[in-house]
Structure formats: structure tokens, C-alpha cells
Amino acid sequence: MIIRSARFLLTRLLFLAMGLPISRYRKEVEQLWSLSKEVRAESLGQLLARNRPLNSAGSAVGGLEDLRSSLSLSKKQFRNQSTQGREKHGKSGFGRHTAGTTGEPTQITLDRKELARMLAVRDYCFRHHGLKLGQREARLWGRPEVGIKSRLKNFVMNRRVFHPVGPEAKDEVANLLSWKPDYLYGYASLLLEAAQILDGMEMEFDPPKCVVCTAESILPAQKAYISRAFKAPVAEEYGSTEFDVIAFECTEGHRHLVNPWALVENTKDKGCIVTDVSRTSQSLVRYELGDYVHLESSNCTLLGSTEVIHQLEGRSINRFAYLSKDEKFHALEFARAVDRYQSLSGEVFEFTVYQYQYGRFELDTSLPPGKGSLDVSRFVSEYLCDVVGEPVNVVPAGEKTASESFTKKGYFIQAMGPDHEG
Ligand SMILES: [Zn+2]
């Protein structure tokens, strides 16, 4: 226990040595969320007046009024803007890079303050679940990277990466639990994979304090399964490379907006757009995230804003399933159908729906369900027929190429081309 706390303190000291005063910013996060909506808005307005970020038209945004009248910023515009910005300032900081869901890379540059704020928001969320940033993290994040840089980073962050897939999967899960992490963090699909392996192992272990799922859509039944397997509560995180954590689940199950400096709006045509009023290295004004979220006011004051993400969908381009050129329904219905199937059958598996042509959907599952792939396809088909009001053809998926299954984000792959998106 002493070693464990000493290790935690070492990480926090390393943060300080790197010029990242996380506790100070976490207190600022707490303070901002304790303010009334009006007072908080005033404080964010002042920050805008000081930072004056540029909007997509290239004009300075000096307050909330300017923000409201600004057009949204596409990823493409952002890339052009950043290139110009770099030429102007030529300053470098902490880089974050994303291949992006569109396949278009985005380069994010952060100075120390900006990185510290991001980490502070994370620390704020973790504390709600009895964790602290810097405690021992077991990360399920694809294959561990090799090389000194990532080893150093993992050392600083007090984390280890595990990969519970392939022939060594069982050993990997055993190693993970023997390491006694304070919490698990990772992709829902990998956590699910690990949970399934653990389920068949009958291993004694000290449960982690929490399991944090990120980056992928997850169903309630899948979450419950992970929670049972690891004997720990599961919290869902919603974030992006550009902003890091945007929303985090409270212990009551709401996904609260948690970054007080990130103003999140939901638009009909551009999906979710986010402004970071604190950012100075780059201007992120009404930035189009490419996800579709549905925000709702709640009465819950446990974490962050009372505004919560009610529905969360993957990329906006994948939002609709098409029956014909003019008939479509929301891809969310697939998730609901499969969730229902899983609750009824007591099984848990991952799934992906592919659409290559009008009116026909291929359903792929990570494991064949007990009653077979045809059974689940029929169930989803009937479920959708009730929802949509006409027959929906759902069939088991054929073999997928590595690139088809690897590049996926979310459970619905619209593969008919961009011109079908309404
Ligand atoms: Zn809540």
C-alpha cells in the first residue's frame, strides 16, 4: 500500500516537474461547476475576451455574442487554419495526433496549461468515482506500442497496456489482474473481450475501483456484463483527441458534460459542435466533431454540468440506415434491437452492421450467438419491422477483410458512399 501511494505521488511530482499543475486546475474545474449557469457564462465570456480565438471566417471571437454569430468550423478548415497558425507562431508544445474517423489526420497542439487543464478535467471525473489521476491504470488499448518513448510515457502515467486478444489472451488477463490496477481504462470492445475471458477463468482477484470505457458505443447489457466480470462499477467516457474528455458518466448513470471550458452544442445539420474558450495554441470555435449527440437537461448535480448526453451516436455520416433513396431510419435502432436480444438471451457479444446497398443489412457478431447468427438476424429484422413499419432485410455478414473490421468506429458502417447522406 505504501509503495502504491509512493508511486502515485511520484507520478504527480513528475506532472509538476513537467509544468503541469493538475490539482490547481482541478480546483478551477470544481469551482467553475459550482457557479450558477449565468455566472459561469460570464466567466467564460471574459476568457474569450482575453483569448480572442478565431472563428472559421478568421475573425476574432471576443465574447459569447460573437460566438453565437460564428459559423461552425469543419475539420478541413481547422487543418488549414492550423497550418497557417504554425507558420505564424512556429511554437511547439505537446502534440496530439489523430488519424480521424474520416481518415483525415488532425494535428492538435497543446501548451502546458492546455494539457494540464485536460488532465485536470480527467482527474475531476476520476475523483467522482473514488480514483485519482496518476493511480495505477491498466489500459486496454490495442497492441502495446514498443519503443522508449511510449515506455517512458506509460511509466510517467503509472500505467501498463494489456492486449487481451489472440492466443495469449488468457495470460494477459491474468497478468492484468495480478498487477492489481486501481482502475481499468480502454475501448469498450477490448474490455468486453477481457470480461468474456475472465468469465471463463474462475480467478480470484482484488476488484479494481472502476472500469472506464471510452471511444466506442457500448450497450447497457454489455456494460452490466463488464461490471459483473470485473466486480467493479463501469463508467462511460465520451471524448475526442481534440478536447479529451467531454462527457463522463456519474454514479447514477448520466453522461454529464464535464469540461467547463468546452461549450457543447448540438446542431441538426452539423452534429455536435464544440468551442474551447480556454485554448490559445489553436482556435477551436464551434468545431464540428463529426458525432451526433442529443443533449438533455437533468436534475442531477453529482458531476459537471446538469446537461447530459442522452443519446450518443458515432460519426454523423453513419447516422442513417437506408431502405431506399428516400426512406431511412436511425442506426441507433440496431443497437436497441441487439440490446434487447442480449437481455432476453443473457448473452453478450459485440456487433457491427454493414450496409452496402439499399434495404439490406449485414449483421456481424464477435461470437456466434447460442442460437446461431441467423437467429439474431431474424430477431433484429422483426424488431426493426415493428419500429420502421415495413420489412427490413437483415442477414448474417459474410467474411470481412481486415481493413473493413479494423477501421470501424461504432457499430454501424455505412458503406454506400457519401452521396447517400441526407
Ligand atoms: Zn448524474
UniProtKB/TrEMBL annotation:
Disordered: region residues: 75-104
Polar residues compositional bias, start-end: 75-84
Protein name: CoF synthetase
Gene source species: Marinobacter iranensis
